[in-house]
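quick one, 859 residues, struct below
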Amino acid sequence: MVFLAVNFSSFQKPSRYINSEVNSIYKDALIKVALVFPDVYEIGMSHLGLKILYKIINDIPFASAERVFSPWIDVESEMRAKGIPLSSLESKLPLRDFDIVGFSFQYELSYTTFLNMLHLGGIPFQSEERNNSPSGHYPLVIAGGPCTVNPDPLSPFIDAFLIGDGEEAINDILYLFYRWKTSGDGKKSSLLHALSEIEGIYVPIVHNNPSIPLLLTKEGKGGFIIKRRFVESLDNVPYPDNPIVPYTSIIHDRVNIEVSRGCPMGCRFCQAGMTYRPVRERSPEKVIDIAKRSLKNTGYDEVAFTSLSAGDYSCLLQILQAFNKIFSEKKIALSLPSLRVSSINHSILKEIRTVRKTGFTIAPEAGTDRLRRIINKDFKEEDFERALRILFEEGWHNLKLYFMIGLPTETDEDIEAIPKMALKALKTAKQYTRRFVNINIGVSPFIPKPHTPFQWYGQDSFDELKRKKDYIKSKLAKKGFKTKGHLIEMSLLEAAFTRGDQSLSTLIEKAWSLGCRLDGWSEVFDFEKWEKAMSHTGIDAAYLAKKTYENSDLLPWDKIDIGVTKDFLWKEYQKALSGEITTDCRKICYNCGIGCPKETKKERDEELVIIRNFEDINPSTHLRFAIPPIYSSNQFKTVKIRTQFSKTGNLKFLSHLELVTMLHRTIRKADLPLSYSKGFHPSPKISFGPPLSVGITGLNEYFDMEIIPPFDLIINRKKLNSILPEGVFIKDMSVIPDKTQALSSFITRYEYEIKCGEISGIHKFLSEKEINIQRGTYLINLRNMVEDARLIDEETVKLILVDQGEIKIRLGEMLSAIFNAPIERLDITRVDLYGWNDSWVKPLDNYKQQIVDCKLQEV
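---
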């Protein structure tokens, strides 16, 4: 979403909005699809489902997919003030002008943001209003994601819900839409009726028609009409191996490879564990192939093998070993999401830390063995202690522990055990290291989710949850622990929305009208507005959250058939109350109703044999892990390369850290032979000149890097420029002597051109002999730091600024004193950088050499 009338420098994280990321797709097609994530950029760009659909849709010849994210409140305010509609990142097309607008609902607190985005995009909220509007065409509004397994709270707003996996269903939807648009009658009602016949699609306006029975009778308990879609084989559906690489840091900023979908362990609070059944594993060959291509196409330095239960992936250890055999020389790190306690072992941890130790998370969820049996977490206290010993023996110093409060049958004894588990982790760590160990504790209220064994159980009251959370926080704070977790008010709303019916749509719309949006962000969330909305509508969210259901009750989400039967969920609920464990369902089938693919133990064993013998695999297969002949870095004397580049256009809005990250990834993508630091966290030896502030153009910027020869300066400069996004350009590369000063200490002068409109301030500034400011304990004369000032035209000033020894130039400080205006209001270009010479200033030394000597040298 690019707003040409907006100066991004004045907003938080301008890189959310500037577009043109590496691997983004620009395509004009007959059917235009907006993939909309109802949260800000860094959250939405971390979502794997969006990346999968982006690839699938753009691979269809007649369709294009573009991304739309929620603006932050500062940009939204500017949009409203200037009448700028919400538009896509790629083509800047307003949301209302797309053919299909698809929302992904990952969490219930995004519901008001969804309405806000419709409003900013010029689209009416109500499906009925859109479909019957005489004013013209509105896009088809569809929704998917885990929240749609209870579609009722959003059903007045959504034309069609996709329930379940989207890889195959999205093709059905688009090909049907294509036929309707090219040869159909053009009536929205015809489109909706056709969509309602696709498996996994719920169309409220059709299915809620009184002439169609909403629920089928099944033993008097209510039946289902909408069957969830799921793909049978992950290997047979597309997967993005050329994902967009954001400029700004996102939540999951790495290559993410889904090694399996579904979970066999059956935690009774976990909706995903039920709604993503059955377990489907991606083959080891496919995983490694995706890793190879993704790293080549992105320049990332970390790969995460993701899953609901990564530790239960059949070939986990073998695939970690295979990955490190290929990529450890290139310093590509591995990470895994939260592992089950019983799956933690020395072998896996050794593989994870081969390049560097990434973060580690354990989710005990409950503090006692008794309560863990209730929720079906199958480990005991001694298992937790064993996992901690292994973790700290292998050198980890950062650990996250996640717990829930308000679980069914929970007692104060269970709550008191949570701080004890945290203390046990700290004491165990101190047995293995004298270094500081960072243990963070996450504590969140339990939310009873639809289609789980605990769907009948009501949430604890607000006061009770607050009492428990305050107790834990107080106990842990005394021991120096940091605790995080959901606000109780947020969890209350989440429980109400996830278990609510269609009447909640009124509450959601009213809360939006009172200013609610981005409710998942504590700095924006305002529960008082929600309380006002409840008062206006008469809907009590706390009552809905606490409500307890009976087995005979017809639940709002019973219309959705996730595959797991209601009878099975009730039996699991009864087993929970008696403290009975349900073990790994791949070993014992408990007849949940899903009908697992007929993968046999023999087939899984054959996969293990394949990957254990990867050295002997035929070269034509994906599992040929032959390492190309390479020279060890100690056979060469590294060479320093000084690189001159420019940063212009929209990329001037990158922060220094974002620029550094983007250039690091570009260099890795170009496969330049970088030299790395030693130690536990090896990093490329690249150093940058003085940073540019956000919004400032740089015409001659510099960075130095150490490389291992041979290295062709001309070829590699061209290679980098062919990869870099528009706005950053490598102008020159030169070899410099080993003992050349670092850029940060060498550069002392800076040449700027500033378009300011009003230049009278410069005359007053230059007429003064002293303009003193206090910076900490230093009294600084800013006038001495302006070495030269010239007028280029009526509104442009050229300045040469100079550091005063250890006192460095701070541009915002200087320009505020000269022009009496914040830096964000000025158009600033840094023209050049200079090093010190006895006479005046001297451009950076430029040592020319086309080919670095590639003879083997003894270090």
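The longest helix spans residues 412-430.
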